[in-house]
Specification:
alpha/beta; Rossmann fold; 2 domains; globular
Length: 404
């Protein structure tokens, strides 16, 4: 099939859509990606992509078309400009695309407006549009400074409903999203599908070499933003600073990284180390060192309904997960029996279950095995890619029938 993928973020930014596109090409599909200029997570466009350079390139068989974009910076205002910029200039780029496609696939992170260029192509070429929702809009913005009662939220609500309704099919990355779409956005399963399509993990995280020592090493990997509540880890580390064998390793970047580092420094914590941002290809060395993985999030309806992709990465690595988190992630960890959880933000209980895990090697071994088994049963990469291709083919055939 000839597939157009629309996503504001793509290689060399490290999002899972990279691997999905590379795998689709391996399966014999022709993939074109419409995206912006790489600037995540630091907020500045990479210098090799400035001044109209590398607007068209091919990576691992994927044809990449890039539109103008300003970096997202470190402020809410700059992020808003970044979002709107892609919506406008991505749509202009889409308008002048001459290539024919069989299907359009939007890998919808934040914001929902990243789907607008796809809507332009859908209208022009009369082909099916599938939106894969990883961030629910507009409710996702309430994890920041925008409240549900604000005028901005009401405007975003109308924009989101309009955008989602332009899709022929909507797939969701977390089962809990279905309730939000039906109850809040009034978008029904019957009309748009709302099919659950889980994330999988890149192959980089499989078959890791074990690095053993006397420490109990805990790894948090990923975005360090307001929603991730890495502060909960810092507070737990403060409680456990006299446990010399328990070490916290934090790999990633984001809006809250500087604040979290300052907090750890203020507490004079020797058991916490920040490593900054690293690409997916560099992550195995950190995953290999970990005895268990950490996941923390704030406690609100958006986060509680989300299953972050890092859960699959943790599971495929075959290590336990220790979480201070509520909702779907907690349910998944309990269902898989692959670790321990306490409620979001409860750093005292978080510290207790970390100590509990560090003292029970038998349970660590059992949770590790269960983690891998659960991944293989529900998130297997080969099955996920084949299911996605089957969905594309089905929507393509429906469209052919309509146009006859």
């Amino acid at each position: 099939m000839k597939i157009l993928v629309v996503c504001q973020h793509f290689y060399p930014e490290t999002f899972r859509i990279n691997d999905i596109c590379f795998e689709l090409v391996k399966k014999g599909n022709e993939v074109t990606v419409l995206t912006g200029l790489p600037n995540y997570p630091k907020g500045k466009v990479l210098k090799e992509y400035k001044f109209f350079r590398r607007r068209n390139e091919t990576v691992n068989g994927v044809n990449i078309k890039r539109c103008s974009l300003v970096g997202r910076g470190k402020s809410t205002i700059m992020m808003g400009i970044n979002y709107l910029w892609f919506a406008i200039f991505g749509s202009l780029k889409a308008f002048f695309m001459r290539k024919d496609f069989d299907i359009i696939y939007v890998y919808q992170l934040s914001p929902i407006t990243m789907a607008w260029p796809a809507i332009v192509v859908k209208k022009m070429k009369k082909i099916p549009l599938i939106i894969h929702c990883l961030d629910q809009w507009p409710i996702s913005v309430t994890t920041g400074p925008i409240s549900k009662e604000s005028f901005i939220y009401k405007v975003l609500f109308k924009i989101s409903v309009w955008t989602y309704n332009k899709a022929d099919k909507i797939t969701i990355s977390s089962k809990s999203f279905k309730k939000y779409f039906e109850n809040e956005l009034n978008i029904s399963q019957k009309l748009k599908g709302l099919s659950y399509y889980p994330s999988y993990a890149e192959s980089d995280y499989e078959n890791l070499k074990e690095i053993k020592d006397d420490d109990f090493d805990l790894l948090f990997a990923g975005n360090i933003g307001p929603a991730q509540s890495v502060e909960t880890i810092i507070e737990a580390a403060k409680i456990l600073k006299n446990y010399k064998n328990i070490k916290f390793h934090i790999v990633g970047d984001g809006l809250s990284r500087e604040h979290c580092e300052k907090l750890a420094n203020n507490y004079e914590l020797k058991n916490v180390k920040f490593y900054g941002f690293h690409s997916v290809s560099e992550m195995p060395k950190f995953y290999s060192k970990a005895d268990a993985f950490l996941i923390t999030m704030v406690n609100n309806e958006v986060v509680n309904n989300t299953l972050p992709a890092k859960v699959q990465s943790y599971m495929v690595a075959g290590k336990p997960i220790i979480g201070a988190i509520s909702g779907e992630v907690k349910d998944t960890i309990i269902d898989a029996d692959c670790g321990l959880c306490c409620e979001s933000l409860d750093y005292e209980s978080f510290a207790k279950i970390i100590v509990e895990a560090s003292k029970d090697k038998k349970k660590i071994k059992k949770w590790s095995e269960n983690s891998k088994k659960y991944y293989q049963k529900y998130f297997d990469k080969e099955n996920c890619i084949n299911d996605l291709i089957a969905l594309f083919e089905k929507e393509g055939k429906i469209n052919e029938t309509k146009n006859k």
